[in-house]
Amino acid sequence: MSTLIVYFSFDGNTKFIAEKIAETLNADIIELKTSKKYPTEGFLKYFCGGKSVIFGEKPKLTNTSIDLNRYETIVIGTPVWAGSYTPPIKSFIRQYKIQGKQIALFASHGGNGAEKCFAKLKEALPGNKFIGETAYVEPKKNPEDSSSKAVRWASDILAV
Ligand SMILES: Cc1cc2nc3c(=O)[nH]c(=O)nc-3n(C[C@H](O)[C@H](O)[C@H](O)COP(=O)(O)O)c2cc1C
């Protein structure tokens, strides 16, 4: 079963988990990148990121084209922003017609909004089969626990 991990990460938490999952599944991994730059500090970081979610922005991805035909399973990872998934993930969903895949979702967050984020992702990805979802609270602050949780979760997905 060929699996692709696709993720966006602003501060490295989602990246940390994505890399663990990819390593466990021996899967391909792609970090989404955009030409749009969000402020990295202070009030503006939250304001601009949050606004981008609320306005439904789809920033242009700078990744080279991804051939999804090669994969049966796609694992999508995102930080929770304003109770939702991040704009680059929205761009990815809009750019690629994702149909008939097995999809697993994971998110990093600060304490709330992961369920809403997953519900919105599922709504945005009709025509696919969801095989798992899991959320991590600031995983880089607790690397050992988060990393063993990621390894267990990834092994469970593979067992589906
Ligand atoms: C613009 C913005 C909005 C955020 N909104 C939420 C939120 O609604 N709920 C939450 O629990 N954390 C929120 N966070 C915190 C991040 O989800 C959290 O720090 C996450 O671990 C970051 O992942 P990353 O390091 O991969 O970027 C927000 C962070 C930013 C920058």
UniProtKB/TrEMBL annotation:
UniProt GO molecular function: electron transfer activity; FMN binding
InterPro entries per record: Flavodoxin/NO_synth, Flavodoxin_CS, Flavoprotein-like_sf
Residue intervals of the Flavodoxin-like domain: 3-158
Entries under Pfam families matching the protein: Flavodoxin_4
Protein name in UniProt: Flavodoxin-like domain-containing protein
Organism: bioreactor metagenome
Lineage, broadest ranks: unclassified sequences, metagenomes, ecological metagenomes
